[in-house]
Structure formats: C-alpha cells, structure tokens
Write a structure and sequence with these properties.
heterodimer, A: mainly alpha, Cytochrome Bc1 Complex, Chain D, domain 2, 7 helices, 52% helix, B: mainly alpha, metal-binding (chain B)
Chain lengths: 129, 233
Amino acid sequence: MIRFGIAMLGLVAMTGAIAVHQPATAGSDNPRIAASAHLYDTYCAQCHGVQRNGKGVNTVGLSVQPRDHSDTAGMSSLPRDQMIKAISEGGGAVNKSALMPSWSAVLSKEQIEDMADYLIYVCKCDTAQ
Amino acid sequence: MKGSLILAASAGVVLLAFAIRPTAVDAQAAGSELASQCASCHALTKPAEVTVDRLWTRKGPDLWYAGDKFNKEWLVAWLQKPTVIRPGGVLWFKHAKPGEPRDTIDTAAVEKHPAVDAETATKLADQLMLLKSGGLVTEGAFKPESANAAMGKLAFSKLRGCIACHQSAAGTGGLSGPELYDAGQRLRADYVIAYMKDPQQFDPHIWMPTLTLSEPDLQRITGYVMSLGKEDK
C-alpha cells in the first residue's frame, strides 16, 4: 500500500516513462513479461532498483554502479546476446564488473532469455529504433 | 496462546503476531514449544515444495537446518534479546522504497522478533540444535590454519562483491542479505563455507547467487566472516 502510494507520487514527480514500471508489469498483459517482472523483483531489483533505474538498496559503496535498465539510449547499445551472457555467466564474462553476478544457478535458460526480452521491454529499446 | 494464534491468523497481519508476547511454556510440553510457537513463521522441516513464491509468502527464515547453522550460545542469548539480522526483514523487497540517490528500506516497518525468557530460550535452543541439514554441511570443511582473514576481507569487500548484499559492520554494506558483522558468534564456520559455496542447496530460489569461488577463496572468506563480531563482545 505504501509502495503504491510512493509509486503514485513518482507518477506525479517523474515522467510517465518511469511510472509505467511501477508496478513493473503495468501496461502489459503478456504473462511472460509479468513472470519476468516478478523474477526481476526477486533477484535483480536489490541492485538494479525497484524502478529498474540502477539505484537498488545494495548500491551503497559499490565501486561499479549497476546498469540503469530504464535508460533507453544506454540499453539500446546492448545486444540481446550480450544481455543473456551477462545474466547467465556474470559481468566478468562480458568484460564488465564481476559485481554483476552469474544467475545460471538460479534461473533456467528459458527464464534468462525471457529476462532479456523483459529488459528490452523495460528500456523501450524495441520502440526506440 | 490458541486465542492469540487465531487472532493473528484471522487478522492476517504479521505485525500483530509480533506484538503478541509468547506465553511461558510448561516444562511438560518439552519438544513442542518450537512447533507451537515458531512453526507459524519458520519452516522446521525441509519444505516439500520450494518455489519462488514461497519466499514471498513465508513469514520468517528457514530453521530446518538450524542445528548445522547456529552456535547454541548465540541462540540462547538472541532468543531473549533479538536484534535485527536482515535489515529489510525476511524479504527486503517488501520494505523497499524507491528513492534518490538510491532505494531505501523503511526500517520502522521491519517487524520486531518476539522474545522469550531464559528458561524457554535454552529449551528452544536445544530443540533447534537437533534440526540438521541432512548432509549439506560437512564437518571440518573449514580449515582455520589455511585461512588468511586479511585476504578474505579483500575478497569479501572488493573482489567477490559479498559486501553488495551483506554488512560487514553496522552501516557498511548492502541490505538485501543478513548482516554478517556478528557472524563469528552466530554462525558455525562449516555452515558459512557450505552456504557460500552453494546457497541453492539450502533453497533453490534464494536471491544469493552462486558466485564463482575457488577453494582458497572459500577458505579465506570464511576465515574473515568468522572473525567478524569476535573481538568486541
């Protein structure tokens, strides 16, 4: 309830682009997007932020800040294959910071592929091009 | 007790359950205190079905491997005077608020743990120590003689990124995992190494990832984690 209240505040304070991610599934009735959003809340939001903006509760003092997944321009340069590799094997596998962990022990291959599609949905990268 | 349980259940409010002081238990009922007072929030046997959603609905962390995890002395003391271990409660997300420069935890909303008296605490600790992981924790896996805690600190705080989710001192570190600044008193070294090596063995869906750690990494990080909280109490 409180979170919803804050989301509403956010809606007023920020642009609709961010508000649409709070709740993260708003605007989509695709069940795979909804399932990925739930997994994102469970595993990714701790670092990448409840609003997918890279500002998670765990970012205090991290030497490399997590990627802002709501940043259309920044995320558009990231190929889907590289996203999948980073999520499966960790940042180190794509020459990025090892602070981005590997998730292959927790998420299935299919869930990781759906997650990449979800990230493309979140950054609105498909509509930007 | 029965009345309060029904009240808590019907209200469905965790806060309310926390507000109810556990009543003193009768010594005849030894063995049942855990089941009657604690099972509403804690899994005392390995859950038959583990799902992501269980992590969203459970009201407390799992205790089914408590006997392999905790130091008994710590349990006895903590059950009488519980402190916050998980800064964001059992699931940090439920207390997270979006914000600038980063999301925060609404700490005021994090539930307080019920406390028990000394006699009950000892009894409960005895019962908890009987709950074993069924082979997930290997006796003697941690080799103190080969652990370099100074290198462990570097791995914990920089190279391996444990600090992202765990506090190594009050106020230093991330908030989505349990604090580890009193780990040396709370936890058993063989559990620390087993958990770090493969958290998904304890829960396949827990949000601590399996990190790529070499055997020397595991040893020195455990050495460091076990040094935390030892000096100052």
